[in-house]
Write a structure and sequence with these properties.
Blueprint (H helix, E strand, L loop, with lengths): L14 H12 L2 H8 L1 H7 L4 H25 L5 E2 H7 L5 H13 L3 E16 L2 E16 L12 H5 L8 H5 L5 E3 L4 E3 L9 H5 L7 H10 L4 E3 L3 E3 L1 E7 L2 H6 L5 H11 L5 E7 L6 E6 L31 E5 L1 H12 L10 E7 L7 H12 L6 E7 L2 E6 L4 E5 H4 L20 E4 L8 E5 L2 H12 L3 E5 L6 H15 L7
Parallel strand pairs: 9-11, 11-12, 12-16
Antiparallel strand pairs: 1-3, 2-3, 4-5, 6-7, 8-17, 8-18, 9-10, 13-14, 14-15, 16-17
Helix pairs in contact: 1-4, 4-6, 5-6, 6-10
The structure holds flavin-adenine dinucleotide and iron/sulfur cluster (SF4) (3 copies).
The site of one iron/sulfur cluster has 10 residues, from α13.
């Protein structure tokens, strides 16, 4: 339960207000479901008893905070998030923003959207033209007679055809009721205790983009772009190490960062992917010995449910996770809702890859046969560059087809994904914007930028600003913007 005397977070509130909010929080369906299933959860063995209570405390704290925010907004006119932050000064701004978005999902608050049209000057085919663009404004107000919404298990996301198979829900579920593979998801309804935690953390259940945008815009040390999100710096970079050059996909930046982190004991283990016994079918892997690191290098374009193994990585105090944008969002959402679950505390760094789409493994085999008349085991590399899908063969040959020709093989659920550049990572890495043999690198947090600059200083990476090279940041922003514009909307049944 909430420690009234010790808990600094709540120090601005009177004991009466706090007790009332805690009482209401303890009645929340997620808290009750989790508490009532204590015996089953401990029997499954995912959490020790002390971890169970730590999670319960975190859930009650998060819910208590929301009740206090809700109370403060009762009877107020619709407010912008920036105005709400000022109304509830006792809590950190980012807490208040994410609380409002969560309260909206819980059906306690309504979102009111206004649109305005403004005229801007844009360069189109070299000519400056005036174009009209729509701007959206969001205000929030409490509902008059709210009925709390119960979150369903994530089968609702899978059945709607929008699950990206990240695997996060299966690691989160306290009773191991969810099985996720690269192309399937099953919830065991007999084991499920209907806590809705999986739904809270799923990147495809409800959007946190509005909260992300508002939180990042408050941080004046970050630059904001509607296309590539918030960032500290953008670079083009390449490894200086010959061994990494032999195994890398582009600039070898991801492997260089992982090597530096492991060598300097800044992390105890990395979570990435490697070829499974079926070559080019990626399998998630935990590496704690540097000698196994290079097996993880290079891009496998089939999707991997990498977040399924985060539970196995719990035994390490500090880990770094490598994954695609949907996984970065999943981790961020898990860390926010409910806040501070002990489960996530060991993820020290998130390295996000750029990703336009991924392919089912069966379709990778098919496209290799259909488009190139080759067997998958003849390939040494696959790459997407300058609008082409390119394969390299053991014979030394390189073959390419237009990317458009292979797009029908990509996963349908990737069409619901708006993020190209891993907005939610600490460091994002991809090829768009850089020359061959280089990666484009976006540092998104102060820790991420500090780490990247330490590695440059150690002489392991050579780098310059992405703004100073061709095609550079301009192309990256254009392509990232078009992914956002063309993204399909998610509708859950
Ligand atoms: C499915 C997919 C689609 C991509 N699409 C684009 C794109 O459209 N545009 C673009 O600019 N870049 C894209 N990338 C990123 C790009 O291919 C490189 O991974 C990136 O430039 C890093 O290069 P590097 O040389 O620094 O990486 P390396 O040093 O070679 O390391 C690559 C890292 O990626 C991890 N990895 C490989 N495959 C997967 C996978 N399937 N799932 C999770 N992790 C994986 C490896 O374990 C390794 O840690 C994509 C990557 C993936 C996995
Ligand atoms: S499947 Fe989801 S709702 Fe059911 S117990 Fe697991 S986390 Fe809770
Ligand atoms: S958390 Fe990931 S795997 Fe689970 S339902 Fe959501 S998208 Fe699918
Ligand atoms: S396009 Fe989006 S949903 Fe598909 S694999 Fe990449 S990040 Fe995940």
């Amino acid at each position: 339960m909430v420690q009234i005397a010790d808990n600094n977070l709540f120090k601005g509130f009177t004991p009466i207000d706090l007790m009332e909010a805690t009482y209401l929080a303890a009645g929340n369906f997620q808290v009750r479901a989790f508490f009532e299933a204590k015996d089953e959860i401990l029997k499954v063995g995912k959490f020790s008893e002390s971890e169970f209570f730590e999670i319960l405390d975190a859930m009650i704290d998060a819910e208590t905070e929301r009740k206090l925010v809700l109370e403060r907004l009762q009877g107020k006119d619709p407010l912008f998030l920036e105005e709400i932050v000022k109304e509830v000064e006792e809590f950190p701004s980012e807490n208040v923003i994410r609380d409002v978005i969560y309260l909206k999902e819980q059906a306690f608050i309504q979102e009111l959207v206004e649109t305005k049209t403004k005229t801007v000057v844009k360069k189109i085919k070299g000519e400056e033209k005036e174009v009209e663009v729509k701007e959206y404004f969001y205000r929030y107000q409490t509902k008059e007679s709210p009925i709390e919404r119960y979150f369903e298990p994530v089968s609702i996301v899978f059945n709607a055809g929008v699950c990206c198979q990240c695997g996060w829900c299966s690691s989160i579920c306290p009773v191991n009721a969810i099985q996720v593979t690269a192309d399937n998801l099953e919830v065991d309804n007999d084991t499920c205790m209907k806590c809705g935690l999986c739904f809270s953390v799923c990147p495809r259940s409800f959007s946190i983009d509005q909260a992300y945008k508002s939180i990042k815009k408050l941080d004046k040390s970050l630059t904001w772009s509607d296309k590539i999100g918030a960032y500290v710096n953008a670079y083009t970079a390449t490894t200086t190490k010959d061994e990494i050059k032999k195994v890398r996909q582009d600039g070898g930046i991801v492997t260089s960062i992982l090597e530096y982190l492991l060598k300097n004991k800044l992390v105890d283990a990395i979570v990435a992917v490697q070829h499974s016994k079926d070559i080019w079918r990626p399998e998630p892997v935990i590496v704690d010995d540097i000698k196994d690191l290079y097996k993880t290098a290079g891009t496998k374009y089939a999707n991997s449910p990498s977040l399924t193994i985060i539970g196995d990585a719990m035994k390490y105090e500090k880990i770094v996770f490598v994954g695609v944008p949907c996984m970065m969002k999943a981790i961020e959402k898990g860390a926010l809702y409910p806040s501070g679950l002990p489960f996530f505390n060991n993820i020290k760094y998130k390295i996000g890859l750029f990703c336009m789409e991924s392919f089912p493994y069966s379709e990778i085999i098919k496209l290799t046969k259909d488009k190139f008349e080759k067997e998958i085991d003849q390939l040494t590399k696959m790459n997407i560059d300058k609008g082409k899908f390119i394969i390299n063969l053991k014979s030394g040959e390189e073959l390419a087809v237009d990317l458009k020709e292979v797009q029908s093989y990509a996963r349908d659920n990737c069409h619901y994904c708006e993020d190209l550049t891993s907005d939610y990572a600490d460091i994002s890495v991809g090829s768009i914007g850089s020359q061959a043999g280089f990666s484009s690198v976006i540092t998104r947090s102060k820790e991420g930028d500090k780490l990247f600059n330490e590695i440059i200083k150690a002489g392991l990476i050579a780098s310059e600003s992405l703004k100073d090279v061709k095609p550079g940041q301009g192309l990256l922003e254009r392509i990232a913007g078009s992914k956002r514009t063309n993204c399909k909307s998610i509708l859950l049944g």
